[in-house]
Amino acid sequence: SYELTQPPSVSVSPGQTASITCSGDKLGDKYACWYQQKPGQSPVVVIYEDTKRPSGIPERFSGSNSGNTATLTISGTQAMDEADYYCQAWDSSTHVAFGGGTKLTVL
Amino acid sequence: QVQLVESGGGVVQPGRSLRLSCAASEFTFSLYAMHWVRQAPGKGLEWVALISYDGTKKYYADSVKGRFTISRDNSKNTLYLQMNSLRPDDTAVYYCARETAMATTHFDYWGQGTLVTVSS
Fold it and tell me: How confident is the model over B8-26, as pLDDT tens digits?
C-alpha cells in the first residue's frame, strides 16, 4: 500500500512562514493536495494539483511537490490558520492515500 | 451551493450492520465519482471507498473490503455505504466527499459527517 508521512506537529509564530512536509515514494510523480481541518469541522481543500489554490483560499497558502516530498507553505501565518493539515495523493494500488496529519500550532 | 448531508449513524453492537446515506443537492450528482472517508476519534483521515459516477466501478480500502459496500442511486441523488460485520475499530465519523471533476483525484466538497459508534 502507498504511504504518506507527515510530521505530527509544527509550530510557528504569527506572521512567520510555516512549512509542512509530506513524504512518499516518488510522490513528485503524482499530484498532491492538502486539506485543512479545524476542530469539529469537515476538511477543506487548500491546495490541489501540487500548487493550485481553490477559489477563496488566501494567497498565503502555497504548495510544491518534487522528488519524494510535497510541501505546504503558509506565509505570514495567522492565528486562524491553526488547524490540522492532511496531504493526499492518488495511487493506482491504494487508490486514495492520506498522510497522518500535522497539527499546526500558531504561538 | 453544493450540499452533501450524511445520515444513518448511531450506536451499533459489534457484528451488526448499519447503512449510511449521503443526500446530494445543488449539483448534477450523476456526473461525479463519490467517496466515503472516515475519521476515528482524535485520529486522521482514512479513505474507505470510491464509486464511479455511474456506479460501475467500486474500490475499497483493505480494512473494509468484504464487509462494506458502496452504492449509489442517481435517480435519488443519494450515496450509500452498507456496513456489515462491524468492529469496534470501525468507530469513526464517516464523511461522504465529492471527487472533483478535474483529472486529479481530490475532494472539493465534504459532508458534515455522521458518527458511527461500534460498542457492546
Answer: 999 999 999 999 999 999 9
Angstrom CA distances, B110 to A1, A54, A70, A86, A92, stand at 25, 14, 23, 14, 23
Nearest chain B residue to A46 by CA: give it. B108
Q: A84 to chain B nearest CA, in Å?
A: 9
Per run of 10 residues, the mean pLDDT along chain A (length 107 residues) is: 96 97 96 97 97 96 98 97 97 91 97
Q: How many angstroms separate the CA atoms of A17 and A40, rounded?
A: 25
Contacts of B50 in chain A (CB under 8 A): 95-96
Which residue reads 509550530 in cell numbers? A11
Please give the helix or strand (H or E) that residue A70 lies within, else none. Answer: strand A69-74
Which residues does chain B have within 8 Å of residue A90's beta carbon, measured at their own beta carbons? Answer: 104-105
Contacts A49 to B, Cβ<8 Å: 102, 104, 106
Instruction: Please name which of A46, A68, A67, A41 lies closest in space to residue A58, comparing C-alpha atoms.
Output: A46
